[in-house]
Amino acid sequence: MTSSTSHEDTRSIGSSLPTTHQGFVRFDLYRGHPNNHALPSSEMQSIMSSLLNGGYKDSLTNSLQYGDCAGNNEIISALRSFLDRRTINDVKVGDDNTDTTFKSEFFITNGVSHGIELLCSTCTNRGDEVWMERPTYFYVPEIFKSHGLVIKSLPMMSDREGEEYKESIGQVDLDRLIAMVECDGVIPPKVMYIIPSYHNPTGRSMTVEERTKLASFAIRNNILLVADEVYHLLDWDRDKGANSNVPSARPPSMARFNSKTNTSPGGIKPEMKGCCISVSSFTKIFAPGVRVGWIEAPPHIIDRLSKYGYISSQGGVAPFMGRLMAHAIDSGLLDQYLDKLVLEYSERFNIMCNALKDEPLIKVLTKSSDMNREGGYFIWVQFPSYVDSEEFAAYGMQEYGVRFMTGKRSDPFHMMDNNATKQSIRSCARLCFADLDKVVLVQAINAFIEAFRSFSFNKRSQ
Fold first, then answer.
1. Mean pLDDT of 75-100
2. For 47-104, what is the HEC assignment?
3. What order of strands is seen across the sheet that includes strand 363-364?
4. What is the C-alpha separation between 236 and 312, in angstroms, rounded?
5. pTM higher than 0.85, yes or no?
6. Which of 86, 144, 215, 234 would you call most buried, defined as having the most Cβ atoms within 10 angstroms of its Cβ?
């Protein structure tokens, strides 16, 4: 655990912390890691024991050999079955709520970052543009820039002037995006990168309507729409909790929009057009240490990946760990674990949100538009405009030992302009509810609130 507070330390947060804690991380709401005690150590022991003692010797031996370029059949078949099962109640893409998608193909990776790296290597050239949301996952811009790609911000609703747009941080301005390219003649990018489900850092999810509109735009303009969907399955019903028997419908994965959006007049083949690509992994729904993820995309994208020299040379990715995860799926163990994890994180989400209700000057902006679902790891909060989250973070760390991610850290364009989005983001922060033990999480959020009240009082007294 990053927090220096032991699990036995249940002392309440006083008006100030002991001087021995000043300047040190006492409560870490920054780190986006799973809770150590929630990691599936016993499940991994069960998987290993079953494979070693349950008549799977030949299969296990085969997984120690070089694998197929796109991934061995066992993990791909199990993964397809798992995703079909977990998304059976997702909204269907067809106009009559029937799924008209063609079957995507899969490529096994070492995780989402690896998947994005491979897509950059096989589908882009130096100087190509990548348009992304603002704010966004703070590490991903460096992946794109390392390939010589030029990153630019998608037009955001928060770019608009007016009080009604200040809380729309993270929402793409789709009408303006379409007008820029299709009316004003702006050259479209080669790639758009989005986090459509339980966005990092804002926690927001795109509606079905937004996904449909964005996917159609990408296909029409020959853009690769890369969707980071690592949190897609880690969600719950907003009102009834994780145990709801009638969950709200989850929007479909972006790869599902390759159906009608890839069908165009004149018989243009899908491989001649842009497409939607879903990139995900078992990192958040099982464990980051297994280093197994996947890309779901049309066949021509999977073919490019499979023929990449580095992949051909090494014989695919993670054949051994892929075999372990295939067994976790086939045995039902992954489903059981994910059900428990959803319940655990929904409780943590509610703990943090309920605590934040006690401070009216802190607005919880995390929401899923008009959807009745929540999920992911993070809550996005907004302070009054006089609060610069960088200044508050330094104060909170020094005086209360509480650490969190500032809005600026998630804004790769903060040095480039001074528009309304930049000003809104500077007064925001990302809080992670997944990492700390629940007892420590309560203490951490209380310390965060008290630090804010102290900082706000000092600021207004100046």
1. 83
2. HHHHHHHCCCHHHHHHCCCCCCCCCCHHHHHHHHHHHHHHCCCCCCCCCCCCCCCCCC
3. 363-364, 378-382, 428-432, 405-406
4. 39
5. yes
6. 215
